[in-house]
Structure formats: C-alpha cells, structure tokens
Amino acid sequence: MASNYVKDLLAEVKAKNPAEPEFHQAVTEVLESLDPVLQRRPEYRKNRIVERVLEPERVFMFRVPWLDDQGNVQVNRGFRIQMNSAIGPYKGGLRFHPSVNLGILKFLAFEQVFKNSLTTLPMGGGKGGSDFDPKGKSDNEVMKFCQSFMSELFRHIGPNTDVPAGDIGVGGREIGFLFGQYKRLRNEFTGVLTGKGLGWGGSLVRPEATGYGNTYFAAEMLKTRNETLAGKTCLVSGSGNVAQYTVQKITQLGGRAATLSDSGGYIYDEKGIDAEKLAFIMELKNLRRGRIKEYADKFKGVVYTPIDPKLDYNPLWNHTAHCAFPSATQNEINAKDAQNLVKNGVYVVSEGANMPTTLEGVNVFLEHKILYGPGKAANAGGVATSGLEMSQNSLRLSWTREEVDERLHGIMQAIHKAAWETSIEFGCKGNYVNGANIAGFLKVADAMMDQGLV
Ligand code: NDP
User: Fold this and answer.
1) What is the overall mean pLDDT for the chain?
2) Is the pLDDT confidence value at 90 over 90?
3) Strand-pair category, 371-373 with 302-306
4) Mean of the pLDDT values across residues 448-454?
5) 369: annotated active-site residue
6) In angstroms, what is the span from residue 200 Cα to ligand 1's centroid?
7) pLDDT of amino acid 1
8) Is the minimum distance from the CB of 381 to ligand 1 under 6 angstroms?
9) What is the model's pLDDT at position 2?
10) How far is the CA of 319 from the centre of ligand 1 (A)?
11) 262 lines ligand 1 (CB under 6 A)
12) Residue 225: exposed, middle, or buried by beta-carbon count in 10 A (0-12, 13-18, 19+)?
C-alpha cells in the first residue's frame, strides 16, 4: 500500500495534468516503487525532490507547416520535453506517429530520466516528436516535414544542451534530414543528434543497440536461474528497429523467434524467423516500407492474423513460449494478455518498447514472480549506445563494432546488476521494477540535492 505522501502526490499529478493518462500511469509505477526510499531519506521530501522531478524543466510546443507533393499546405504539431538535466544534457528520442500528444511524450520523457541514469553515462532525460505520420508519405514529403520541424527545434538543442535521437517513425532516413537542416541553420557539424549515418558521425551498433541490449538483459535475468536463451521460443511484437534486432540476437544466442507484428496484424512462424527470413523483413520494412502480412505470403506454413478490434486481448500473446519481447508500443499487453502469457508458459518478459505493459499487467507478472524486465532497464541499450556515439563524436574517433558491442554488453550487465542488487537492498529480491526505479532515481536525486534549488 502506498503511503499518504505518495497518494497525495499522485492525486496532485492527476489534477495538475488532466487528460494525460500515460503520464499518470508512468508516474504511478515509479512513485509506488520509491515509497521506501522516501521513508528512508527524509531530506528528499524536505527538498521536494519528487515534486521537482515530476515537473519538466521546460516544454516546447510548436507549429510545423509543410507542403505535400500535391502542393497542399499541411500543418502538424511539434514538441520537445526537456525533463531533467541533473546528470547531463537532455537525451531522448523523437517520435513521429499520429497518436503523439503531450501526455505520451511526458510519460516517455519521465521514464527516460531514470533509464538514462541507469546506463551509468552522463545523460539527462528528454523526449519529443510530432503527430506527423510518415506512413504513406514520399521521401520528399518526409524531408520537407523534417526540415520544417528542425527549423524550430534547432534553437532549443545542441551537443551540450539536448541531443535527440530516433524512436517510433524516426529512423536513419529522418535523422539524416533533421541533421542536414540543423547543420545548415547553425553552420556547425556537431553531435547534436544520435543515430546518424556511419559515414557522418554515427556509431557502429547504434541501429542494433536496443534490440541487442534487450536480449542481453533477458540473458542476464535467465542467468539468475542458471539458464540461457538457447532453445527458448520467443514471442516478439512490432517489426521496426527494436523488433528486428531483437530477433537477430535471439537467433544468434540459439533461441527461436516465432512472431512479429505491425499495426495491421501479426505473423506466427512455427519454424522460427531465421537470418534469411529476417533479411526479407528488413528489406520489407526499411526499404519498401510494406506490411508484415507479406511475410505470410512469402514463406510457407506461416499464419497471419489481422488485428481484431473487437477482441479484449492480443492473440500474439496467446501462444506457447518461454519468453516475450514486446517491441511495438505502449500498453500492448493488458492484464488478460499477461495472464495468457503466464498460462502459456512464458516466464521471461523483457520490454523493448517503452511501457508496453499496463499497470494491471505488470502486477500479474510480479504476482507470478516471473523474470520481468521493465523497459526502462531492459531497453536502455539504445540510449546507452547513443551515449557512446556522443563520446565518439567528442573524441572525433570511431570505435570498432566489437568495441561498441562489448561496451553495450557491459552496460546491460551493469544495469541488470544495479536493478537486481537494489531489489535485494530494498527487500523485494527479483522485483526489477522497484530495483530499476530506485537505482535510477537515487543518482538523479543526489545530483539535484548537490546542485541546489534549481
Ligand atoms: P519503429 O517505428 O521502427 O517500429 C515500430 C513498430 O511498432 C512497427 O512495427 C509499428 O507498426 C509498430 N507499432 C507502432 N505503434 C503501434 C501501435 N499503436 N499499434 C500497433 N503497432 C504499432 O519503432 P522502434 O522499433 O524504434 O520503437 C518500438 C518501441 O521501442 C517504442 O515503444 C519505442 O519507444 C521503444 N524504444 C525504441 C528505441 C530505439 O532505439 N529505437 C530505444 C528504446 C525504446 P506500424 O509500422 O504498422 O505502425
């Protein structure tokens, strides 16, 4: 049961930020975890550290006008949330998706603060994006949009201030257009964005990092039970950047990924998505920008199931398996999905997506004491490697693939260790939700204490 202090804080967050249910959800999970810390460390309460962490340092919201290929004027809304800079410049992705709004970006920016703290690297938390939908747009339209978006954003970011990256709908193509416009406006070639192309400041292994990192995290969780991913059947959702490299690493570690999805539906491939089939997916999604259904047309024995909005559960999570890697979007696993997963033998859930499980779903995992790695720990490999890209840009050097992968692996092991040991210290061994929230918070809170009332 939450203390009265935490209950009052939650009530205030809801009253002050109405119509932001995702932000309320993320805050509820974190504050409930922090209760024991706030009782042990009264100085945090006295200095109102939590109240300050809940309030973004700055929010920008701006008009993004652009001309489509038919010469029509289009108008979108752009955002950047600069949430917390106690331990480094703001860092966090840009999301382009029609569902984007202030509340969704605030939940993502809030999560990002703790995630970045866990990476061991000096990065504050931020997030941004637009309700622009890149789906079905020509390259020219995407470029025009990105240029208009950056024409406002460039004033607020910089390599020592705020360093955005990709997220849903923002991949290598979009980062290229955004970087080009920033460079043109500032007349400066700097590491202001991460996820850049390899020939112009990008880091090896950045595209792979979130998916690889999440798989390393799952392997670390399995290690606590003296197990590995070899021979494990895995359910993966999404088919974008995170999902693709999750499948690749699962396969490399001897597991078998059986599913992938997009917003139209999902495929189930009993034989497993091997390297050759994954190459098809990458071409389909990254170049042709087609739908996952085509995978079922291409390969024999694959079942495609379209989304059925009438269902109150997602059939993707209702297959016999050992592990699940949700890698599409927020709240894609509800309580019923969580129950289906547990019922079907899944005992490892490692979150590639941000907040893919509802609060009720998380409680199902915790009650069953499965190995549950929350997104802010399990998917931190992406931003960690962005941090490594920033280091390489500052050094004006490029590390080898092996060097970056080794650092990524080491960081994921360190995050796992921090979450695991903190869960023990606070009397909830194996509860990675509490472990990650508390470990991430302490570093930020202590930095805020050191820096005075700002
Ligand atoms: P991509 O845009 O590359 O892929 C997103 C995938 O998820 C697509 O298959 C997309 O399908 C599907 N998807 C997105 N929104 C929805 C929705 N509302 N309903 C159903 N399916 C949906 O994004 P990423 O792979 O980069 O990101 C996936 C998740 O991982 C996000 O939660 C993101 O925040 C998180 N993440 C990403 C990091 C990164 O480095 N990229 C780092 C850490 C976390 P469709 O194409 O049909 O929309």
Assistant:
1) 98
2) yes
3) unpaired
4) 97
5) no
6) 25
7) 75
8) no
9) 86
10) 22
11) yes
12) exposed
Q: Cα separation of 167 and 134, whole Å?
A: 12
Cα three-residue angle 452-450-380, rounded to 5 degrees: 115
What are the sequence ranges of the domains in the chain? Answer: 56-188, 209-373
| Mean pLDDT, rounded, for 418-444 | 98
CA pair distance 123, 119, nearest whole angstrom: 9
Whole-angstrom distance, CA of residue 78 vs CA of residue 63: 6
Which regions of 289-361 does DSSP assign to beta strands (E)?
302-306, 323-325, 348-350
Q: How would CATH label the architecture of 56-188?
A: 3-Layer(aba) Sandwich (3.40)
* Identical fold between 56-188 and 209-373: yes
Mean pLDDT of 118-129: 97
Residue-wise pLDDT tens digits, 15-29: 999 999 999 999 999
CA distance 174 to 166: 8
Closest atom of ligand 1 to 330 CA is 32
Regarding the beta carbon of 352 and ligand 1, being less than 6 Å apart is answered yes
Q: Is 382 in the pocket of ligand 1 (CB under 6 A)?
A: yes
- Which homologous superfamily does the CATH classification assign to the domain defined by 209-373? NAD(P)-binding Rossmann-like Domain (3.40.50.720)
Three-class DSSP category at 253: coil
- Global pTM? 0.97
What are the pLDDT digits (tens) for 313-336? Answer: 999 999 999 999 999 999 999 999
